[in-house]
Amino acid sequence: MTITVIIAFCLLLLIAYLFDFTSSKTKIPPVILLLLLGWVVRQLTGLFGLSLPDFSPVLPVLGTIGLILIVLEGSLELELNASKSGLIAKSFLGALAPMFALAFILAYAFHMLGYGSLKDGLINAIPLCVISSAIAIPSVRNLSAPNREFVIYESSLSDIFGVLLFNFLALNDTIDKFSVGNFALELLIITVVSFIATIGLSLLLSKIEHHIKFVPIILLVVLIYAVSKLYHLPGLIFILIFGLFIGNLEELKRFQWINKLKPDELSKEVTKFKELTIEGAFLVRSLFFLLFGFLIETAEVLNTDTLFWAVGIVLLITLLRAVQLKVSRLPLQPLLFVAPRGLITILLFLSIEPAHTLEIVNKSLIVQVILLSAVLMMVGLMTNKTRNI
After folding, report:
1. In this predicted model, what pLDDT tens digit does every residue of 315-352 receive, in sequence order?
2. Which domain holds residue 82?
3. Can you tell me the distance from the alpha carbon of 375 to that of 139, in angstroms, rounded to the nearest whole number?
């Protein structure tokens, strides 16, 4: 039995690699194929009467680690210089404005239809408003550099803003000046902690001479994120700051104190660290979506009670994105279609306390929105006629 499990595990991950390797040719987002593969495995286990343990508790753990590695991978790819200021501003607008607009529209609709209070509506709407960096970043490798960078910035910031807004609403019974002040204090604390931890980790990366050096750094990154979550601090800000710092050592050389880190030597280690992060992110992301696909019930995908809502939400996402891209003077094709929902949507949905859950926002709706947004992105990328340079 053990050997069979190992064989199945290796085969599934090799198939996942094949999906990722061929996605540039097929233009099919690997997540769609991974979800389908997981669902097929579920049907086969039922067909052959195989008894497997309940994997549901594993999903949030994989999702959290995957989120850390994916945001770290994305931040390592970003360049910080004066020429990027306009792009960063547009990404900031793209991540924040549609999220707020969609969240309030959905929350108001839920509230007016009698599904709960406006605050509960917002808590349930936010998971549907976050662009998934886990799906978006791997899917735009073949777009032009400006479009690719915009998606990386936008989706990473969307993850962070989504988690911040969700935690702010979920952890505060009342929204007043005291809760806002406490939230601002938490942001200040995590920013200070992030800079201190980033300098410490960078020193470790440059000083460790043992042949094993990258795994401890990644474990420390995960540990700092987990501890920050225990104290309800926005840990993704730390991940973003750390990735941006070590990924932009050349730009930071003008500061004298950076020379103490020996940036030229450290850059070589960062290159290796980046390669390990990319491969780790692929592994965890693949396992997450395979497992989520395995846990999907066919009835949830075909649930007609939520399908109308799912289609309406995806159309609203597309409409708001079109307005945002026009305001930012960015090309509609193919960026209009690159707004998938995925890993962070699932994680936030699973984090909703029973007291705040709404009947309409259930697993069927989440699955349908994720699949429809991924299919829409696939169609948009397949029909993209612009040159990818």
Report:
1. 999 999 999 999 988 888 888 999 999 888 988 998 88
2. 2-51+59-382
3. 12
